[in-house]
Amino acid sequence: MADTGQHQQSHERYMGGSPEAERRIFERLTKELIKVQEKNRRAARAADIGRVQHEKAALGVENARLRFHDDLPDTLRCGFAQPGAQYPATVRLSNAGGIRQADGAPDLRGAAVRVTVSTEEHHDLLATNHPVSHARDAREFVAFAKAMAGATTRLHKAVALFVELPLTVGLATATRMRRNIQAATRRTVHSLAAETYWSRSAILWGEAGPVRYLLRPAGGAATARSDPERRDPQYLRRELETRLARQDVTFELCLQRYVDERRTPVEDGSVEWLESVAPAVPVATLTIPSQDLDTAEARAAGGRVEVMGFNPWFTTDDFRPLGNLNRARKSAYEASAAHRHGLRFVTEEPLRNKLLGIPTDTALRLLNRYVPWHKLPVQAGLLNLVFLRKALRRFNLIDTDVYEAPPKTMPVPAPVDEQLRTVRSYDGTYNDLSRPAMGAVGAPFGRNLKPVYRPDLFDVPNPVTVSRELLHRDTFLPATSLNVLAAAWIQFQVHDWVNHRRHKPGGKSVEVPLPPGTTWYNTPGGPAERVMRFADNEGVELPGDQPPILFANTASHWWDGSEVYGENEHTARFLREPDGGAKLRLEEGHLPLGPNGVPLTGFAESWWMGLSAMHTLFAREHNAVCDALRQAYPSMSQESVYHTARLVVSALIAKIHTVEWTPAILATEAIDIGLRTNWEGPPSSWLNKLGLWLFESHSLTGIPKTLPDHHGTPYSLTEDFVTVYRMHPLIPDDFEMREHRFGQRLETLGFHDIQGSAAEAAIRKTGLADTLYSFGISHPGAITLHNFPRALQHFERDGEIIDLSVVDLVRTRRRGVPRYNDFRAGLHKQRIRRFEDLSQDPETVARLKDVYRSVDEIDTVVGLFAENPPHGFGFSDTAFRIFILMATRRLQSDRFLTVDFRPEIYTPLGIDWVQKGGMNSVLLRHCPDLAGLLPRGASAFAPWRQVQAMSDRGERAGG
């Protein structure tokens, strides 16, 4: 085995000074190459996206073979390169341009070879018929590709070479690149079988060190001449057809060994390795056997070769690609192939949006210094939100994925399982088909703000003191525009989105010192202690000295109904009816109970009666969709019915949250219009449509009719998102249960009476309809200070007694979420300078001053609760900024809510079910007696009509 690290250190130099800095540069360059692909497609007026280069193939065969010479030198024997070893090979010969044009047009030619050693081991060899690259490195390569993108005429090419390229790379570099290209393309090519192809970049060859390789014609091919009709735009293909019909086509694989950095540089692809300096040593023969290329079998093989993505990194460590151009190729080729195969998407911003956006954004930012967006007229406020979201997308999406740097070799990826193109996977993988792990179970939480890791401030000020002075509920403060179903709903959603893994009780714990003179019982029946203790989160180990602030999500990040269906295949199948039935298991309309008395469902932590109602409703909804699908499509298999029903229910949940729950808690006209635009497109008003056409045309159709767009950062939910969805004040401490037909009071229950295993006894006793009615007429708590549920400040979970208000504070600090003032500044709001800037309530200001030494010390959760929200808002404008960024992102990134939200995937019935459905339709399908109680002209999360009990009527009559 070669010492790869030694060769890397000796011969490779990284852009930006380090592998990680270079990776970030390559990432930007890769995005530019994808745009080149799209531009070439438009220029060629092609329906499909092509390769960035080498778009037009003249030959694609699967039956070639590579045989190493029997006298292979000892120093070059390594891995699969052994004397006499023979392997099947796939070969593609092509023109080098990114646009298909006649074979007689000036162009480079290329050869791509995949050598198959075994099902697990392949080696891709890529070469071009000129010994040097026009580009010294990846930056130059991309600059040239961008300049030439879409150039189909001589005038356009001249402008690209003599104007655009010099402006990008400088006159001297552009001149060198232009001369290299002209030297390579001026020569007349009579036959691709008679060309020599050079790798132009180095690879490692085991202990022999860096080499460049070349394929030169053998067996008389270099001197053989046919006389093709060169006016034929396909003459190179025709010549190969004629040649292969009568003889094999053979190339000799030769290696040139590294000598020194000056004459045989590894990093500079524009320098030729002269054979007088580095002789070409023959090591193997590549043979394309004689065959008829005009048969159905040969054409089918050619078609399969066309969809292949060749990449020099499909190899082993012994043959690792070297040099800047090769290192850039890995991400570039992966992305290009994914884009070409429809696995990755590009959404171009129209030029008018870019040009008009600059002055408009500047004007709005100036205006917002004096007038916040929510105090503007509706249309101006909506325009303000459009540009606020653009700024947040640009500055507040931080990628936390851990990448390989430098790149590593890899096997050829297996083809995507065809079923995963049409169904949600159990664990969230393959939503983005080009990056299967994106957003899946185990993917890390992202960031909207740069994390701040301050262990010295973990307990400053004491979180228990913060909780007691600023969060504790003395008197219940209701949110009168909502009902308790809104509180149950958001917990139902959060359990689908986020879940940090915790160490098991008795394992690694967080210890919070208590204020002097106080104690806490950390376990039932345990001793009084001077510290509050609870299980710590399990972090993701990071290389180097990075702080431990990266955490994985044990749920998938996608809106996939995992709280109902489970986050893995085992759970999902266990929750279904026996013998692979499509429906979810129910017992007399209720979820089956587990051994601990809590129902069997996808996510059952922090269980209470409100969650039970939501889970029961949507388990029933799944089964209703299954029945409808079976009736409409009798030939559908049980498996297809199940997966289609899951798609439908998950999309319906996403729609309800987008156009019903959120406008209920953010009750303003601008938000209602904006969120409905997200799903349905803008209102029919010509002014709305004109505004979007001018400034953000992607919003003209509604997100489900657009392409997936991650806005430059792999999709994930974020730690900041988790923080703003800490909405525990919504939960009341007690609940009055009433009967929905006559309004009679049934009983009053405390939260502990309807929590954990007690929840199911309560809901089965009360009944689903009466439970929903009781919650529908009751108000949740307001999301504000001094309103944290008392029941959640002392309850048992997993064998621990915890104060959830303290846990919320501690988790936020330890996960590196910035404190409130930094948080709001990072979201483009002015910092507060005084405690009085945060709250208008004198008592709150006094308590803040008692607890915190300065405004910069205020906890994020405390600041968000204390902030005076815009009129109609159920939470602060600062929290809303995370929401406006992430709410659309959860839809926009999801393939099944964008490009694959279509009848072919969901069935026509499924699409209709989602588009016509909502929370009211779900409630009435399963509890039709509630029809007259739902609010008119408002969502089901607004207070319902109360039935006046007979006793109340009598008292009124008597009065």
Describe this structure in words.
- This protein has 959 residues and is α+β, with helices and mostly antiparallel strands.
- It has a domain of 337 residues: Catalase core domain (Catalase HpII,  Chain A, domain 1, Beta Barrel), CATH 2.40.180.
- 38% of the residues lie in helices and 10% in strands.
- The strands form five sheets. Strands 1, 2, 3, 4, 5, 6, 7, 8 and 9 form a nine-stranded antiparallel β-sheet that branches. Strands 10-13 form a two-stranded antiparallel sheet. The chain has a two-stranded antiparallel ribbon with strand order 11-12.
- A hairpin with a 5-residue loop joins strand 3 and strand 4.
- Helix 11 packs antiparallel against helix 24, helix 15 packs across helix 21 and helix 15 packs across helix 28.
- It is elongated, with a radius of gyration of 33 Å.
- The termini are far apart.
- The N terminus and C terminus are likely disordered.
Describe the structure in brief.
With 959 residues, the chain is of the alpha+beta class. The chain has 29 helices and 17 strands. The termini are far apart.
